[in-house]
């Protein structure tokens, strides 16, 4: 325990007591010394906030999660400087990934500017010395809550999704133990029955966000509360998707080029949200829109992905794959919907 | 980890990113920041929370000095460092349970050489195998070359991974290169025995 290396890796509190000693040293003995001289990082904290022991725990979980697409891998979720349920899982995954060469973007419901997103971004910038951006195409790691960006992600990018509820089966059974047994035996009949009952009652599947999807033909996955619009982006993507839940202490993943199929019936196919309006700012008709009621009482529709909306406002013809070499990369739903535009004109969006 | 010339913060983080790429894109050859890759991988993943089997004296001594070494027999270990091959014993490594398959072992093989599909491996051609992987992370099929891993061992790995989701996850390491073979992929020998599917 007296080894130099161990000193370097000790918990933040221990390092804080050693601070005086470190400052008096003239020659740097580790990266933390160099970082404190460059003004990066907070004194007494390890690089990227988490201690190395925590990072190893998260990293082991992440690798097992990628090896088992869709399976919820337990990990020892730590206390973070914000309440559980506010993105603590996402932060732990992001901070275990981030290095000085990374560019980090954080979005909260499509917005870069919400308080939570801004704070998480600042935490990473202060402790991990990363570049931050709001431009999806420039980021190497993107932490997100409830949305997948409109612009197509590449094989250089990792998307970290914050997850409030890890298990898709919790809709039909509150017992975690029973649900884990169901996953073990790929027994998803209870979910199928629930969807069938939904169809009987409403004539369609009434799930808006958190639409259950089958990963690699084996595990039923809760894709976090992304809208149905985003669910198809998980299928056969170029990027890696990590799902991290701090409160529930679970990590799961969808590797690139993996089959992700939203549950549906032969005669009740999977439908995405449809909008009759266009974005009132940029005029887009092929993006996910949210309803905004202003102070004047008028309801307008606006792009949910604020960063892409700004780009579209300047260049209305910008495609979602404008930054890629190849054209017509499949990403997100086609517009107009071939099924709805033929039969119902998109009215039941 | 400085005894092994590994920066405990930044080299392990870069190694982790290499492992993330290797696992999410099986069959691609990724680079670790330090040599040998097997040391970098163990330094990144192993501490007293998991059990280790195998590994050189230097590695074990360094881990032990940091109170990060908890050893276990081959059959019970979470992380196993393999020198070349296990003589087929990989099939008795821990595979986890149906309820918690992530408890399956991670095996790190030290092999002689690794190459992406396009680069030929110098040296004895008789020992070079071309392996093919398909499955999650692989569009279509990906092939890569490995030197110093017997075809029988590849068969044994495929066998140990055959009961998906139970199974073992494998990393092949040589010099500063690493290839991931998670249990989700189908693994087979593409050359030497072209008609023999092992997975």
Automatic annotation (TrEMBL), chain A:
Q: Where is this region: Disordered?
A: 1-37, 314-349
Q: Which one Pfam family would you cite for this protein? A: PhnJ
Q: Write out the entry's keywords from A to Z.
A: Lyase
Q: Name one GO biological process term.
A: organic phosphonate catabolic process
Biased-composition ranges for Basic and acidic residues?
314-325
Q: Where is the composition biased (Polar residues)?
A: 1-16
Q: Any keyword Cell membrane?
A: no
Per UniProt, what is one GO molecular function of this protein? Answer: 4 iron, 4 sulfur cluster binding
Q: What is this protein called?
A: Alpha-D-ribose 1-methylphosphonate 5-phosphate C-P lyase
Q: Organism, per UniProt?
A: Halogranum rubrum
UniProtKB/TrEMBL annotation, chain B:
Q: Taxonomically, which superkingdom?
A: Archaea
Q: Which GO terms describe its biological process?
A: organic phosphonate metabolic process
Tell me any Pfam family this protein matches.
PhnH
Which InterPro entries does the annotation name?
PhnH-like_sp, Phosphonate_metab_PhnH
**Membrane-spanning residues:** none
Task: Indicate what this protein is called per its UniProt record.
Answer: Alpha-D-ribose 1-methylphosphonate 5-triphosphate synthase subunit PhnH
Q: Which organism is it from?
A: Halogranum rubrum
